Amino acid sequence: MPKGLKGYLNSGYFEAANSLTSKKARHRIVAYVESYDDIYFWRTVLSEFENDKRYFEVMLPSKGNLSRGKKSVLMNFLEGEPLGKDMIACVDADYDYVIQGSTAQSKRVLESPYVFHTYVYAIENFQCYAPSLHNVCVSVTLNDHRIFDFRGYFTQFSEALFPLFVWSVMLYRNGNYPKFSITDLNRIADPGGFNVMDPEPSIRNVKRKVHTKINELQRLFPEAKEEYLATKDSLKALGVTPQTTYLYIQGHHLFDTVVSPILTKVCNLLRQERQNEIYHAKAHKTQKQNEMSCYENSQQDIKVMLKKNSGYMLSEQFRRIQSDIREYLGTD
């Protein structure tokens, strides 16, 4: 095994390995990802591009140690660009996409033809893709009653947060992020007490916190108006709209603090509705007990089903990843 960079293999190694196989054997392309959860996501992305000539092997950066994360993946091309046609890196975009090369890491992610990113902040944002959340509820509760408008709610949530998100990106681009970090943004992007039947107060709560923070930032950076407007325009040009801000905030925060609690409350109501239907059905007691037991045993865990959610495959951002892979492979 060649030494590679700090113990890592490089694309040349895999090219040599491919050259030693039978001409009829499928060409192997190694795709390094950040974590165990990323393996399933990028497998979903790359499967479409496998055929009788090539296949992808999605793996973590190193089998020799337990180092994980984006930096570990990107170590594979810090020196000499060892990535290549037979070894690629697949990472969460984080802020690297929206800050557009303002840091060395962002430049590497955006400029290397062998690094692919999610466009949204992380795979968790895809899992929380609003148009698909009703289907997640159905998979959890086996109740297809639409009692909550996820698309409408996250449109309002995003519109409330967008002005402050522009500030966040601007300050990360110009190096002033210690004054307003992603962690600070997360605290404001917490809807707080959420009521399925009356979600408006949670949106108003976000708007209130956004307004307060923007006033504070405007006092701190009184000359930032032109830069703010330019950042806003550039974000929209990147496909970041006021209606889709939720896709670009920190993925773990969105998944754990925003979406999961909302799904839990919606699913609890759907379960209760189904259980009431069984309880009030015209049937004898034993039949009702059997039906209730069957229903309860068929329900699924919310976070497990959310992680398995693939409704994001209909999103524009997912199609952009597919387009990047097609370009790399030289396919139509």
Protein traits:
14 helices, 332 residues, disordered N terminus, four-stranded parallel sheet, single chain, 54% helix, 4 strands, alpha/beta
Concise overview:
The protein has 332 residues and is of the alpha/beta class. The protein has helices at 11-19, 36-47, 70-74, 104-111, 123-127, 133-141, 150-174, 182-188, 200-220, 225-237, 251-279, 285-298, 302-308, 316-329; strands at residues 27-32, 54-59, 87-91, 115-117. The chain has a four-stranded parallel β-sheet.
Question: Can you lay out the helices and strands and say which pair or pack?
Answer:
Blueprint: H1 11-19, E1 27-32, H2 36-47, E2 54-59, H3 70-74, E3 87-91, H4 104-111, E4 115-117, H5 123-127, H6 133-141, H7 150-174, H8 182-188, H9 200-220, H10 225-237, H11 251-279, H12 285-298, H13 302-308, H14 316-329
Parallel strand pairs: 1-2, 1-3, 3-4
Protein architecture, described:
It is a single chain. With 332 residues, the protein is an alpha/beta fold. Helix content is 54%, strand content 6%. It is built from 14 helices and 4 strands. It has helices at 11-19, 36-47, 70-74, 104-111, 123-127, 133-141, 150-174, 182-188, 200-220, 225-237, 251-279, 285-298, 302-308, 316-329; strands spanning 27-32, 54-59, 87-91, 115-117. Strands 2-1-3-4 form a 4-stranded parallel sheet. Helix 6 (133-141) packs across helix 11, helix 7 runs parallel beside helix 9 (200-220) and helix 7 packs across helix 10. The two termini are 36 Å apart. The model is unreliable at 1-8 (pLDDT under 50).
